[in-house]
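Milestone M4 deliverable, item 7.
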Amino acid sequence: MLLLLGGFLVLMLLGVPVAIAMAASSLLYILVSGVTPDVTLAQRMIAGVESFPLLAVPFFILAGNLMNIAGVTGRIYKFAVALVGWMRGGLGHVNIIGSVIFSGMSGTAIADAAGLGTIEIKAMKDHGYSTEFSVGVTAASATLGPIIPPSLPFVIYGMMANVSIGALFLGGVIPGIFMTLLMMATVTYFAHKNKWGSDTPFSWPQLGSAGLEIVIVLAFPFAIWLMTLAGMSTNMAVVIGLGTLLVIDWYFDFSAVMALMAPVILIGGMTLGWFTPTEAAVAAVIWSLFLGLVRYRTMTLKTVAKATFDTIETTASVLFIVTAASIFAWLLTVSQAAQMLSDWMLSVTHNKWVFLALANILILFVGCFIDTTAAITILVPILLPIVLKLGIDPIHFGLIMTLNLMIGLLHPPLGMVLFVLARVAKLSVERTTVAILPWLVPLMIALIAITYIPELTLWLPKYMGLSK
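Output delivered:
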């Protein structure tokens, strides 16, 4: 165990990329201990990515990239300005609402920070907000990406923990709404403290238009339900509903109706059993292509090719981390290191609430040093047996783990969102870190609530019949 973990930590301290550090320390352990033939390294790494659920990863990444080039981010921003820009500290609220909508398409915090964050930070600075406040609210709202479905970390966790990815997606809805309200309350606090006004004049027509878009999107599943009650097949009802929606959107030229439909289609399709979470990722790509090529006509073959190559690059780095982490996690189990850590934690406490407090501290710490995908792959085999033994729902624990790791993305030394926003805002990493600190308060409140009020996570999956 010392050789495996010690080698990994030494390589990390030397600045070796996390995937290479895990693969190298695993190979060193195999060569020194002789616990298994060295060819096992390649076999286990291949087995680590030979998984149907992991097919969702490249497709969700591609969907996010396509949404960016389709000009959807600009439309989301325009919609959010119309909806909440008139409030005090308006662009702070716009930042958060924009991230909520974009979360329903990208599924990653980094895509949110790099895509929508670029527009939001520039707009806030142009309206006189300090760079620090702009960066802080953008960083905090980016954590919503993997909480509100769809979510790449949920896909990885669901595969590792062998739990329903659809249930995890549904489990993130209420916590995502709760986090959104906390962040908006924080913006309101800063607005009153600094005596900020609104950033756009209050306009009934604009607010009414934004509100109408929300009503149309929420009415869509209700209309489908009514048509099925009238005896129409579900497939036919959906075709008629989408066709009607497209005509309405084209006639009134709404800002974001079709973008807002993305999470409705994905969650509705999974709930109705039309497609698995992996197939939902393909549906997200098809919807993105439809918006860019047909509805908005902002895509070209050149931009689609660029999005595809960007996706290949990102997917390769993510799956390389998964392969390296899979062999590392397997060796932790084979060497009994995972069992030893599990026994140690159970010797400290058998109270599930105390365990969750200790797990939060551990995952937060790990998230500051290790990539989200690698952290999930390593920690799940160690912590999940304890979770099951103490009677904690693995779906609930998946939300806890994901939120902890998202908060870790905001911290040095390896917080990727921190570095992305420092580059976007042209701030030093030190100033960016200080800017993010006040926003840890609502995030920690959300973490405590999600940890100790399991029904925030579990009520919706139970209601939809995806969890016991």
